[in-house]
Design goal:
This protein is α/β, with parallel strands linked by helices. 31% of the residues lie in helices and 29% in strands. The protein is elongated and about 80 Å long.
Length: 380
């Protein structure tokens, strides 16, 4: 990558940063990415996959495997707080997870593939919508267009505050936790506040559930038995002094290192809610939102990333503990061998989703270089 090419990619990253779009609404972002890809003349471009998703295909000269590199299009519903010259121009929306940087790194891979196609197989560059809500990867894979590009291996990365700038953390096995939001609704019957005994209030059940749900968390190491329950919201009746409430809700985020443990946690929550509702004669309903399956790295994909880091003298640490963060990248593991690695942005860098977070431009050649070396290793 020449200095001029890097400067152009940085300028593009800043432009994407200033124009964020939320999950499922990435129309202009996708249009900008499409324009950049068309300039490079890939052998095939598929659009509107699972929403605003895009896939660019670069064919090799000989038959071989299909290797995909995946990044994300969406931003977050958070107000940015910074003095950046390219700060978000849309109130309440910002690229505070680094997806703007991820997109540009994959475009850098596209630049290299345009210069020199793989010797065999094909490279598919995936620009996926709606990662932040956990809906994008599933919709992308379930789209009928996905059958045209179904990869044998999919590689991805995420930047990581707290890890030294430019260093790689590569999980061996579990890579990201499973998580989902459980919205628990209890319904009874209102009554006059002077005669609460003539209604059925969910207040006691909600109070008990908040304690019991929190107690389901095991804490400790991020191993196969790890479980975290985070209470995020609760409501009870209406804001009035004259009515004993007839409805209430508790929202809790469930998080585990494995899908097996997640299923156990879900079953425990159902038993707990059913018991609390039955004791007080309440109706109950549980719905799930922002569902993320666990991500697990395949051994051969891990070896590819490790070799690509060593070949480029990128510092790398192998780890057996997943990140507590969730990622819908795990969906691609249902039909391909996958690996996600973490690329450090600095030990004192603002955390992901902080209002003053920004992706470091110095990572663009590092991340794209790892992907390019991985592709050359696999496809020549």
């Amino acid at each position: 990558m020449t200095p001029d090419e890097l400067d152009r990619l940085i300028a593009l990253r800043h432009a994407l940063h200033s124009a964020p779009e939320l999950s499922g609404a990435e129309q202009e972002t996708a249009a900008r990415i499409l324009s950049e890809l068309q300039r490079l003349n890939p052998d095939q471009i598929l659009t509107d996959i699972g929403g605003h998703g895009i896939a660019a295909v670069f064919d090799g000269a000989a038959p071989g495997a299909t290797v995909a590199i995946r990044c994300e299009l969406d931003a977050l519903p958070i107000q940015e707080e910074s003095s950046l010259s390219y700060i978000s121009q849309t109130s309440g929306k910002a690229h505070l997870c680094g997806h703007d940087g991820h997109m540009v790194m994959v475009l850098a891979v596209a630049e290299e593939m345009a210069r020199q196609r793989p010797a065999s197989g094909r490279v598919v560059l995936i620009f996926q919508p709606a990662e932040e809500t956990g809906q994008g990867a599933k919709a992308f894979r379930e789209d009928t267009k996905f059958a045209e590009i179904r990869p044998d291996m999919v590689l991805s990365l995420h930047n990581l505050p707290g890890l030294e700038l430019g260093h790689v953390s590569l999980p061996v096995g579990p890579a990201n936790c499973a998580s989902r939001g459980a919205r628990i609704r209890l319904t009874g019957r209102t009554s006059h506040a002077a005669a609460p005994q003539d209604g059925r209030s969910p207040a006691l059940a909600i109070a008990q559930l908040m304690q019991k749900l929190a107690a389901l968390a095991t804490g400790g190491a991020l191993d196969e038995d790890y479980a975290l329950t985070t209470l995020t919201h609760a409501t009870l009746g209406e804001p009035t002094f004259g009515v004993a409430p007839g409805v209430g809700e508790v929202w809790v985020t469930l998080r585990t290192a494995t899908d097996r443990k997640m299923q156990e946690l879900i079953e425990a929550v159902h038993v707990m809610v059913e018991s609390a509702a039955a004791d007080l004669g309440l109706g109950h309903m549980i719905t799930y939102h922002d569902v993320f399956d666990a991500c697990t790295n395949a051994p051969d994909a891990v070896q590819v990333i490790e070799a690509a880091c060593h070949a480029g003298a990128v510092p790398i640490t192998l780890t057996e503990s997943p990140q507590a963060f969730s990622e819908d990248f795990g969906q691609f593991g249902k039909s391909a061998r996958t690996a996600m690695f973490w690329l450090g942005v600095g030990e004192s860098h603002p955390q992901l989703h902080n209002p003053d977070y920004d992706f470091p431009d110095a990572l663009i050649p590092i991340g794209s270089g790892i992907f390019i070396r991985a592709i050359r290793q696999l496809l020549g």
